[in-house]
Write a structure and sequence with these properties.
four-stranded antiparallel beta sheet; 2 helices; about 35% strand; alpha+beta; Ribosomal Protein S8, Chain: A, domain 1; disordered N terminus
Length: about 90
């Protein structure tokens, strides 16, 4: 059963997975957006890629910073944080 804060295969609305810790900080020139969401530990290897290749490509193409950290008290999930400029 989902606790409402994590995303699992039983969640029918994928957007719930991205609503954990989102916020936007604005300044005069740009908008920096931060999105944090739960990600299955067993899939982190695919996200990162061999020698970090997938993360490097995501950073290069989108300009976002990616941080993956362990979720407290639940080793089956990691917290992925994306931070970067909002681009239209």
């Amino acid at each position: 059963m989902s606790d409402g804060n994590s995303c699992d295969s039983r969640d029918t609305n994928a957007n719930k997975c991205l609503k954990d810790e989102n916020h936007v900080e604005l300044n005069e020139d740009n908008a920096v957006t931060t999105h944090s969401f739960d990600f299955p530990t067993e899939m982190c290897g695919r996200l990162i890629g061999q020698r970090g290749r997938n993360v490097a490509v995501i950073k290069e193409k989108s300009g976002v910073e990616i941080v993956i950290r362990a979720k407290r008290y639940d080793t089956s999930w990691q917290i992925v944080t994306l931070e970067g400029e909002f681009r239209c």
